């Protein structure tokens, strides 16, 4: 368990495409614990491995309200389905300090992934969960939420 340094814009590592995980073993589980510690320490609700400099397709999240912890782990997540209806949410990012913006994303999505123990899982997400998953999955492709803003200009 360790709190790691979160890398921030314009660090080029954030633009790297993360690689699939071949096997969820001890090393990956240690990484997920560190990611979660780092995320909680920074008061975030989601973190991708690349944000602590590790280019692996791993995400941790916890969107529970204060008090109870509900950690979620996503390894090699793939979006299977996106709702055509969009939802607007104010987003921020631990790698883009002190910037917030309203971003449109599909309001619902279905995700296939491996969990903490490497078991295949399927999740139907909506609301904040859907927004957060899509935001974190963008990190795996080297995309930041601010990119959607520059496209409008
Ligand atoms: Ni982010």
Protein model, in words:
By secondary structure, the chain is an alpha+beta fold. Helices cover 24% and strands 33% of the residues. It contains 3 helices and 7 strands, in the order αβββββββαα. It has helices at residues 26-41, 127-140, 146-152, and strands spanning 46-48, 58-61, 72-82, 86-93, 96-106, 108-114, 120-126. A 5-stranded antiparallel β-sheet has the order 1-2-3-6-7. A two-stranded antiparallel ribbon has the order 4-5. The radius of gyration is 14 Å and the shape is globular. The mean pLDDT is 95. Bound molecules: nickel (II) ion. Nickel (II) ion binds next to helix 2.
Short description:
This protein has helices spanning 26-41, 127-140, 146-152; strands at 46-48, 58-61, 72-82, 86-93, 96-106, 108-114, 120-126.
């Amino acid at each position: 368990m360790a709190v790691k340094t979160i890398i921030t814009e314009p660090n080029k590592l954030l633009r790297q495409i993360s690689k699939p995980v071949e096997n969820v073993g001890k090393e990956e589980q240690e990484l997920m614990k560190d990611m979660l510690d780092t995320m909680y320490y920074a008061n975030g609700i989601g973190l991708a491995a690349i944000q602590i400099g590790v280019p692996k397709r791993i995400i941790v999240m916890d969107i529970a309200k204060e008090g109870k912890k509900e950690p979620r782990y996503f390894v090699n997540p793939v979006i299977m389905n996106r709702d055509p209806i969009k939802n607007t949410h104010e987003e921020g990012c631990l790698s883009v300090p002190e910037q917030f913006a309203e971003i449109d994303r599909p309001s619902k999505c279905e995700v296939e992934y491996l969990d903490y123990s490497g078991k295949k899982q399927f999740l139907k997400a909506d609301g904040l969960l859907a927004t957060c998953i899509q935001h974190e999955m963008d990190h795996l492709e080297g995309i930041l939420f601010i990119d959607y803003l520059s496209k409008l200009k």
